[in-house]
Amino acid sequence: MSDHHDLVVPEATEEPIANPGLPEHLPRPTDVDPVAEKRAERQVATLFGLSALFAILTCVAYFAVGKYDAFLGLGASNVALGSGLGLALLSIGAGLIQWSRKLMSDHEIVEMRHPASSSEEERSEAVAAFEQGLEDSGIARRPLIRNSLLGAMGALGLPAIVFLRDLGPLPGDKLQHTVWKKGMRVVQDVDGARIRPSDMQIGQLVNAEPEVFFETNSEGEPVIEGTELLQEKAKAAVILVRMHPDDIKPWKGRENWGVDGILCFSKICTHVGCPISLWEQQTHHLLCPCHQSTFDLADNGKVIFGPAGRHLPQLPLAVDDQGYLVATSDFTEPVGPSYWERG
Amino acid sequence: MSTSITTNGTKSATVAKGNKAGDAATWADERLGLAKANKLMSLRKVFPDHWSFMLGEIALWSFVILLLTGVFLTLWFKPSMGEVSYQGSYDQLRGIQMSEAYASTLHISFDVRAGLLMRQMHHWAAMLFIAAMLVHMMRTFLTGAFRKPRELNWVIGGLLLLLGILEGFAGYSLPDDLLSGTGLRIADGLVKATPVLGSYMSFFMFGGEFPGDVIIPRLYIAHVLLIPGLLLALIGAHMLLLVYHKHTQWPGPGRTENNVVGEPLMPIYMAKAGGFFFMVFGVVALMGGLMTINPVWRFGPYNPAEVTAGSQPDWYMGIAEGLLRIMPGWETHIFGITMSWNIFLPGQIGPIALFAIVLAYPFLEQWITGDKSEHHLLQRPRNAPTRTAFLAAMITLYGLLWAAGGNDILATQFHVSLNAITYFMRGAIFVVPVIAFILAKRWCISLQRHDNDKLLHGYETGIIMRSPEGGYSERHLPIADARAYKLTARERDEVYQGVNGTDANGVDAPNARVDGLRARLSRAWFATNVQKPTVAELEEGHHHAEAELEYEHAAGLDHQADGHQYDGRHDVAGDDLTHKH
Ligand code: HEM
Ligand code: FES
Q1: Given an 8 Å threshold on Cβ–Cβ distance, is A82 in contact with B204?
Q2: Domain-embedded: residue A9
Q3: Which residues of chain A are under the pLDDT cut of 50?
């Protein structure tokens, strides 16, 4: 056998203590004592018997325990089925393990190892076969064939990628716009109730949505529903907060975006898009429950803590001729998580 | 085996006559040549035993449980985002608009008997699956079982962990409840942060704008077919390699690099491992029956404008969550583009880098140590101090990030400011792992010293002897042969010296620099390790003990006061203190 085929064994001479060899096999009580053996046999059979019993009890419970009954605050049926099945399985398991430990022969066996590699002969045989194959194909002598084949295989990858094109539409400018537009009423998110400035106390936060989510067409069908509703909601959800007008420090150009200290901000976190809802009225801080980005709503929604990289977009507000809060335009910047071409 | 099968081609093969099982075996072998398979993997294949070898088994069995319970769930689950008005038996949600996926999950939970049990078992088994893989991986790491020739099996294991986590995330998303939808929303944000392609990737993934109506069906097919298929194939490869390499074993009397000592697959391991399967299954069934997990009915259907406070992903997503949470909000806006480092680094680069390190580890270590030989005997963690310390650092990092992933919960539980926790974590993830590394390494080395003390001077009996002069000393006794052998059954570490250790002329500069780095790393890796005693050192230790004994005789003791009489460790008849060679 060749050199590499032998395992590297440390030289015996440098070992401070020689390997004393396998210890002698000691018999277990069940090997020498017929009473112990019988007892173990009975134990194993009892466990198997118990398992069958539990399996049957589980089936009984399936029919006997009411679907809607409760037990310790949990579903009674669930508790009964889980316990029954669990005990049936555990008994089989315990029986098998007990059998193997107490009654099956426990003589240790020695098996020799062999290196993972093939022998030198096997290797040269394989290499020879491979080279003969290469030689017969003539691929080395005909680079034209080889290269054109590689090119063809590579080109086949293109349809594989192109065919995936219809996984979804292109983003276009969808991420830059929401359904908000001039004159759209800001309404309560629960019932679509319109909101007058006087409905809001100082310090109050209201979860709000554009009124179009609650509008129906002439046939009584919602204007926006289903998937589209979820998609628009994921961008257009807002919060209204009312603060002391003196506390608010609007950026230039935003001075008239509020109504009597009522400001409207996107509810969608600029970090990775969770809806934000935890409002501290004393500090005017809004905290995102997902990764705790904190925004100062008195200061234009600026990030004051956490992993978000951008302020919360603000929706400019006004009051319409009936006295309800309305948007004066769409958001002036994309809402939600950042993306490359967002600017 | 008692039956021996022979085939000579003309006569039909015969086993013991009149034996039903034998007849069946013959029938099958004549058509399939099954007995040949016994050569590839003998029914009497030997497996060594140790409790830590069970961890991988837990992972395997949880996977089987996931397959079984998962198939049960598919019989009722509807992977559809079509909207329906819920009319099932859970009062609080009746009449509410929701996706069919969510409605069918409620149906499984409330109206299918054993449905909730299977859902909960499926979820508990998923957690167990990933936890077991992780701990199994740590065991493999700590004992050096990933060394040649098993590096590829380590890589397969790493891929299994990665796929397991992805599979878990896909499954967690399927019920389309408020929490799982929030998880998807975060995934959407992570994808959008990809440079250049982010928004396109998001639109292709969700079939349009988030949340769209295709993500649940797409995740479903990944969850029940694609990823389980890959997992199954990789688990198969993992097992094949395990059989081919044969299991590693701990060193001990009679166990060498060239053999494997243990009990045979049939019947011992069939019974033990089979029994263990039922135990794991049974425990999971009890958990599913008694411990509520992911009560989706409490969260309500997904609504992109709602979220619950204190929402937490499954535990195995914890470190990704922690990374996201403690990252400062860095974003670059330049030339009309946005680069979100705050998401890209922790959400994409971080996990990829972590996995790359894990997968590459065996090769990195091999390069540093220059060790090219096969290893079938396991190492005690203390005997690879740098590696063990590295794992200690990684576990510390993992723990810190995991805690950071629950910083809001920590803040409310311990009344600490959230901001303080976050700032602390930002520094701690760089500092504390280093401290853990240093401590773990020192600890390993002191354990190594302790081992050598035991070899050279024996163990401490706790028996105090008074000499005739009135001095006190503790009696040390030699340890038993088998234990002494075990302690020395390890290799001596060799620091890599570099090819050009003495003359730098022969090698060109860039190579020499790499080589120098390698030599320096090797020194850092090994230099402080304690090596086992040499033959000479050991002998000197024993002479010392004998001298002590003679001194006692000279002092007039009429019997050997070797202390065995008092500590009761073994029978001392005919024992003297000299070591048996
Ligand atoms: C191999 C690893 C697997 C993992 C880690 C895993 C994990 C999960 C998780 C965490 C859930 C959420 C359960 C919940 O509602 O609380 C889930 C749901 C589900 N899984 Fe799996 N699963 C695995 C394999 C499978 C397989 C092989 C199948 C089917 C062949 C399957 C079918 C399902 C179905 C239908 C659901 C949705 C049912 C529901 O949520 O009620 N899973 N999975
Ligand atoms: S989504 Fe708001 S902080 Fe991450």
Answers
A1: no
A2: no
A3: 1-13
**Could you give the residue ranges of the DSSP H alpha helices within B477-562?**
481-488, 509-526, 535-554
Element at A109 (helix H, strand E):
strand A109-112
In a domain, A116, yes or no: no
CB distance A337 to ligand 2 below 6 Å: no
Q: Indicate if B480 and B555 belong to the same structural domain.
A: yes
Q: Is residue A139 part of a domain?
A: yes
CA distance B175 to B183: 12
CATH code, domain carrying B116? 1.20.810.10
Contact B485 A175 (CB under 8 A): no
Q: What is the maximum alpha-carbon separation in chain B?
A: 98
Provide the token pair at A50: 């118990």
Q: Residue B442: give the domain boundaries.
A: 380-493+529-569
Give the separation between CA B257 and CA B379, rounded to whole angstroms: 12
Are residues A259 and A184 located together in one domain of the fold? yes
CA-based nearest residue to B114, from A57, A80, A56, A53: A80
Residue B484 pLDDT > 50: yes
Phi, psi of B490 (to 5 degrees): -150, 160
Q: Distance, CA A240 to ligand 2 centroid (Å)?
A: 19
Question: What confidence tens digit (pLDDT) does each residue in B61-88 have?
Answer: 999 999 999 999 999 999 999 999 999 9
Residues of A in contact with B282 (CB under 8 A): 85-93
- B280, B403: one domain: no
| Residue B126 forms contact with A (CB below 8 Å) | no
Query: What ligand has the least distance to the C-alpha of B163?
Result: 1
Residues A185 and A303 reside in one and the same domain: yes
pLDDT digits (tens, 9 = 90+) for B452-481: 988 888 887 777 878 778 888 777 788 888
Asked whether residue A228 falls in the same domain as residue A287, the answer is yes
The answer to whether the Cβ–Cβ distance between B114 and A110 falls below 8 Å is no
**Going by DSSP bridges, is the β-strand pair B46-47/A262-266 parallel, antiparallel, or unpaired?**
unpaired
Give the separation between CA B286 and CA B280, rounded to whole angstroms: 10
Residue nearest to atom 4 of ligand 2 (CA): A291
Instruction: Name which of A86, A342, A15, A64 is nearest B337 in CA terms.
Output: A342
Does the CB atom of residue A338 touch ligand 2 within 6 A? no
Question: Measured between alpha carbons, how far is B236 from B249 in angstroms, rounded to an integer?
Answer: 22
Nearest chain A residue to B307, by CA: A275
The answer to the question of residue B479 being in a domain is: yes
Q: What is the ipTM of this complex?
A: 0.91
Q: If 0-12 CB within 10 Å is exposed, 13-18 middle and 19+ buried, where does residue A192 land?
A: middle
Question: What distance in Å separates residue A29's CA from the closest CA in chain B?
Answer: 18
> What span, in angstroms and rounded, lies between the C-alpha atoms of B563 and B392?
39
Q: Residues A138-190: pLDDT tens digits?
A: 988 999 999 999 999 999 999 999 999 999 999 999 999 999 999 999 999 98
Q: Say which residues have a Cβ less than 8 Å from residue B155's Cβ, sequence separation at least 6.
A: B359, B362
Say how many domains are in chain B. Answer: 2
Cα A158 to Cα A125, B199, B334: the distances in Å are 39, 22, 33
Q: How many separate domains does chain A show? A: 2
CATH (domain of A309) = 2.102.10.10
Cis peptide before B149 (omega within 30 of 0): yes
Nearest atom in ligand 1 to the alpha carbon of residue B119 is 41
Domain span including residue A181: 174-327
